[in-house]
Design goal:
Layout (H helix, E strand, L loop, with lengths): L2 H24 L15 H15 L3 H14 L4 H13 L3 H14 L4 H13 L3 H17 L3 H10 L4
């Protein structure tokens, strides 16, 4: 397979996975589980939503500050770590993104967006076998959480790695 084909396939995988991470991060902020931690405060939820809005408006500095504030309001708010990690990943800061995804997973091991995001970050670092394992975990988590369509999409992404 030529480099151009591999690059196009990798870009397609990244785009699809990114869309899934974004949809999982943005969906139903009030009903997100906290794993073993406590529920996020209303201030943390509102601040995370503000950060997601700022990110969608291409204001990464302000979005990052909002994600950090949401974490300060509720240190156990795994979804805030996922949002922060996604922004770091988008900025090319894969090592920091992986650390934030790890924090999210330590707080809530049932968070598919964290597995998927970490898998993307590992792929960017060229760690394909590790990436595949995290994408498989994302797929299993999505299936267990009643999202079979998104799980199927990830299944189609795996051969690209």
């Amino acid at each position: 397979m030529g480099l151009e084909v591999v690059t196009k396939k990798t870009c397609k995988v990244a785009a699809l996975a990114g869309a899934i991470v974004l949809s999982l991060t943005c969906a139903h902020p009030m009903s997100r589980s906290q794993g073993a931690g406590s529920a996020p405060t209303p201030e943390a939820i509102a601040t995370l939503e503000e950060g997601l809005t700022l990110r969608s408006q291409s204001q990464p500095i302000e979005a990052y500050a909002a994600f950090e504030q949401a974490i300060r309001f509720s240190p156990g708010y795994a979804e805030a770590y996922v949002a922060k990690a996604g922004l770091l990943f988008k900025q090319g800061r894969s090592i920091e993104a992986i650390a934030a995804y790890d924090q999210a997973l330590s707080l809530n091991p049932h968070l598919a967006a964290a597995y998927l995001g970490k898998g993307q970050a590992l792929a960017r670092q060229g760690k394909r076998p590790e990436s595949r394992e995290f994408l498989k975990s994302a797929r299993k988590t999505l299936q267990a959480n009643g999202h079979p369509h998104q799980a199927d999409i990830i299944q189609h992404l795996l051969p690209g790695l």
